[in-house]
Design a protein that fits this description.
The structure is a single chain. This protein is mainly α and 478 residues long. It has helices spanning 6-13, 18-30, 41-57, 59-80, 84-88, 96-111, 118-133, 135-143, 152-177, 187-209, 222-236, 248-255, 258-270, 272-276, 281-286, 292-297, 300-320, 324-343, 349-363, 366-376, 381-391, 397-404, 414-450, 454-462. It has a single domain, classed as Up-down Bundle (Growth Hormone, Chain: A), CATH 1.20.1250. The protein is built from 24 helices and no strands. α18 (324-343) packs antiparallel against α23. The longest helix is centred in the last third of the chain and has 37 residues, at 414-450. The protein is globular. GO terms for molecular function: transmembrane transporter activity. It is found in: Membrane. It is a multi-pass membrane protein.
Length: 478
């Protein structure tokens, strides 16, 4: 996301002639290289009005579905506090596309209620992982078709925030359902059945309520559709010839995209908290001495704090058009929480719980802002779609988390928390490294542009010699 303008780069970073820097800045602003920015008051009102319509007609259904996606991931940890493993006989250690996968994971969630062995549980979780794997990156790519780059982080956060809400909501649901002690089913079976039925219902609404792109949005007037398409073409590519199809060139370019692979590495390590640790968070809380149902209830405050912190950070990131400092701020909150939790003895229940609350407050910040950061620095829609899907590979961190938080390390789980702390420090360094590389690239381009005439800049901006973020006129967001 372009939080650094060309005139700032030329004048402040490189200390070139101020008159030349002003000329360069005006040229780039004329070409709207830094993404879409409404100019006139009328355009600004239309811009915000269009965003509000998308907020009301596109986001809510995706948010509701992702809420239950998060519930279906975390319910295993909630069920574990009600002796789920013991009851089934396993050791404790041990658009149509969207509609179809939503229906499938709802059905597979219900199947959890009837598993009888560890092999059956593994099979159901494996199938569920396959069904869920494409949902998150597909939704991010889908939202990037509707919102310009400088409006993405907060929308990604509203969407991703449902994962944190799911943790709190899931704890409340589990607390209520675990009070049921009647009939032939265990309370944890009712939990899986309820949380599986709702995604099935929501899957039926997807093809009815969601449009494939702004041009076909049923809730927009003809002139709004035209404006929505125009602003996304301007926002998407420097030469104004943006296309929303994936080409062979996109695939080749994504393989050579260094910023993607460095970001993926940092994301995989950082994802241990939201993807791995949070799944078994109720079990960790139970290790502090809270009983089964109460353990689920005690998971609610940290997730509520996590949601609020995420939305505040994302709103600030969009408002200031800055990504790195907001990502690092979230990582530092995680690290502080981990240090408190690791250093305090198990007997200090209040202190360790406070550490977990701080930890979860920062755990959800980085993912949506990193996704918005990458999306804004990848102007070609096809390449951006593939890149966001690959960034989703960071979910492999869930495997790390499941291997770390084994029952043998309970009740304090000190070793898994220490390893997680180390991973967070390395991830933070990884994001700093990506920031440095992007800043160096911006400096190099600003030096090059400072020696070019306005005619040469225009030719660079409109020719196909270099495309997308490889153009000298493209300024990486920091």
């Amino acid at each position: 996301m372009s939080g650094v303008t060309a005139d700032r780069l030329a004048a402040e970073i490189l200390y070139v002639d101020q008159a030349k820097a002003d000329e360069l800045g005006e040229e780039l602003r004329t070409n709207r290289q830094g993404g879409y920015h409404p100019i006139t008051e009328e355009e600004r009102k239309a811009h915000y009005r269009l965003n509000r319509k998308f907020d009301l007609c596109v986001l809510p259904l995706l948010i509701a579905i992702y809420l239950f996606n998060g519930l279906d991931r975390s319910n295993l940890g909630n069920a574990q506090t009600d002796n789920f493993s013991t009851d089934i006989g396993i050791p404790a250690s041990s658009i149509w596309f969207l509609a179809v996968i939503c229906f499938c994971w709802g059905l597979l969630t219900i199947c959890h209620a009837f598993v009888k062995s560890d092999s059956q549980l593994i099979a159901v979780r494996l199938l569920m992982g396959i069904a869920e794997s494409g949902f998150y990156p597909t939704c991010l790519s889908y939202l990037s078709l509707f919102y310009p780059r400088h409006d993405l982080a907060f929308r990604f956060a509203m969407f991703y925030g449902m994962y944190a809400v799911a943790g709190a909501f899931g704890g409340l649901i589990a607390f209520g359902i675990f009070q049921i002690h009647s009939g032939t089913l265990h309370p944890w079976q009712y939990l899986f059945i309820l949380e599986g039925c709702i995604p099935i219902i929501l899957s039926c609404l997807i093809p009815i309520l969601l449009s494939k792109d702004p041009k076909s949005a049923w809730f927009l007037k003809p002139e709004e559709r035209e404006y929505a398409e125009k602003r996304m073409i301007i926002d998407a590519a420097a030469n104004l010839n943006g296309t929303f199809k994936i080409s062979k060139r996109d695939v080749i370019e994504i393989v050579k995209d260094w910023k993607l692979w460095f970001t993926l590495f940092a994301n995989t390590l950082a994802g241990t908290c939201p993807q791995g640790f949070t799944i078994f968070f109720p079990v960790v809380v139970k290790g502090l001495g809270y009983a089964g149902a109460l353990a689920n209830l005690m998971t609610v405050p940290p997730y509520v704090c996590g949601t609020l912190v995420l939305l505040i950070f994302a709103y600030s990131s969009d408002r200031r058009k800055e990504r790195t400092l907001h990502i690092l701020g979230g990582m530092l909150i995680i690290i502080i929480g981990l240090i408190i939790t690791v250093t305090l003895p198990l007997q200090n229940t209040g202190g360790r719980y406070a550490g977990l609350l701080i930890l979860l407050s920062g755990s959800f910040v980085f993912s949506p802002i990193v996704s918005a950061w990458y999306a804004g620095n990848t102007p070609e829609p096809g390449k951006r779609t593939i890149g966001l899907a690959i960034i989703g590979w960071g979910n492999v961190s869930g495997i790390i988390g499941s291997e770390l938080f084994q029952a043998q390390y309970g009740p304090d789980y000190r070793y898994p928390l220490q390893v997680t702390l180390g991973l967070m420090v390395v991830a933070l360094a990884g994001y700093v490294f990506v920031h440095i590389l992007l800043r160096l690239a911006n400096r190099s381009r600003a030096k090059k542009l400072a020696t070019m005439t306005p005619e040469q800049i225009e030719e660079e901006n409109t020719s196909d010699v270099r495309v997308g973020d490889k153009k000298y006129t493209f300024v990486y967001g920091l």
